[in-house]
Amino acid sequence: MKKLATILVSLGILFGAWAITFGLPEQITRLWSAPASTTADTTDGTERARGGPGGGRGGRTTTVVLEPLEERSYPLTLRTVGSATSLRKTSVRVGGTGDVVETFLQANALVERGDVLLRLDDRAERLSLEIAQAELERARDTVTRYQSLQSAGNLTLADVTLSEAQVDLRLAQANVGMAEVALEDRTLRAPISGRLGLSDVQEGDRVSEGDIIVTIDDSSTLIAEFEVPERSIGLLEAGKKVLVGTPTYAGRVFEGKITGFDSRLDSITRSATVRAEIDNSDGLLLAGMTFTIRMIEETEPLPVLPATAITWERDGAGIWISDNGRATRIPVTIRYRDGDEVWIDADVAPGTQVVTEGAAKLREGSAITDAAANGVAHSGETSNT
To answer: What is the pLDDT of residues 123-134, one digit of tens each?
Structure first.
């Protein structure tokens, strides 16, 4: 047995030396390499399927939803609340004390400038006017007589006498004018055209000088006053259109325009007071109403895409784009958000294919394919190639 083992070892050594010197026969080489090749091919195929070294970078393709990047303006909308007053308004006051003998103060009635609103007892003023007129006639006759005598050559009439008579005439004329004004003041007239407010004054009442008897509002144009925060000061511009609404007329929008705004901000609220004119020629709106006010301004065109396209990493927000079938992540800054859409700042050209669904599983350089091209209904599915 020992001999047999020695013989086998010797034969093995001789065969090894011969193989090193002359090489193995072809049949033996094929038999020897077949199992190893099968194992290598199996390993290489597995690595390819797994995206390993055997298959190269991105051996596995991820199906995603791709959409071209669009640019659209974003409507900047400022919403605030304000109240309105009439463009022209006044409170009618009594010019003197007296008893009311006649009134025309029907609430909500439209009046024109100069219309009679109220009459006071004017008997004393009429008598004063008659006295002033009589004195005027006497002074005028005196001046006329003196002038005739002087023209006839009467040397006894001094120039001073005629001059004094002329002064008396001027005083009499002034007294008549004052009496006419006093009589006119007993009748109160509308100083502006507009709509009358409520009044408690009735015939027989006694009023005193300075009492307010009624208000008049010219509401054909209203002035809305509201506050605009500091961040929205850039929206303010004289003549800029504003949209006005009120709960009284739900769903209806009235238009106005900015007429002016304060030159400084309130130190507490950090806002500026703004005034806008609202056309109310149809008379639907009343002074004192509360209004909701909107101002809209379009931004410059910005990239816009679905919110599902945004991914977040340590460096912030970003999007994935298709670069010749490979995923590339681009950092972005979100400017505005409205529902399911976001407007961004990004160094991406319009029309670039952006991954809007299925971005969660992507890595830099991953192979991607469009779900629409493959007829896949939902994103996130993968297929081996």
So the answer is: 999 999 999 999
Please work out, in degrees rounded to the nearest 5, the angle formed at the alpha carbon of residue 7 by the alpha carbons of 6 and 12: 100
What is the pTM (predicted TM-score) of this model?
0.52
Q: Is 248 strand, coil or helix?
A: helix
Dist CA 258 CA 207 (whole Å): 41
- Per-residue pLDDT of 324-363, as tens digits, reads 889 999 999 999 898 899 999 998 999 999 999 988 888 8
Tell me which residue of 100, 95, 98, 122 sits closest to 210, measured CA to CA: 95
pLDDT of residue 49: 38
Q: Is 332:345 a contact under the CB 8 Å cutoff?
A: yes
Taking only the tens place, the pLDDT of each residue in 225-259 is 898 888 888 778 888 889 999 888 888 889 999 99
> At residue 153, what is the residue type?
G
Helix (H, G, I), strand (E, B) or coil at 66: strand
Could you tell me the domains of the chain?
Answer: 2-54 (no CATH), 57-74+301-383 (2.40.420.20), 79-84+217-298 (2.40.30.170), 92-207 (no CATH)
> Quick check: 120 pLDDT over 70?
yes
Contact (Cβ atoms closer than 8 angstroms) between residue 191 and residue 90:
yes
Least Cα distance to 103 among 206, 188, 218 occurs for: 188
CB 75 within 8 A of CB 225: no
Beginning with the edge strand found earlier in the chain, give each strand of the sheet holding 70-72 in spatial order.
70-72, 302-306, 341-345, 333-338
Pairwise CA distance, residues 322 & 320, whole Å: 7
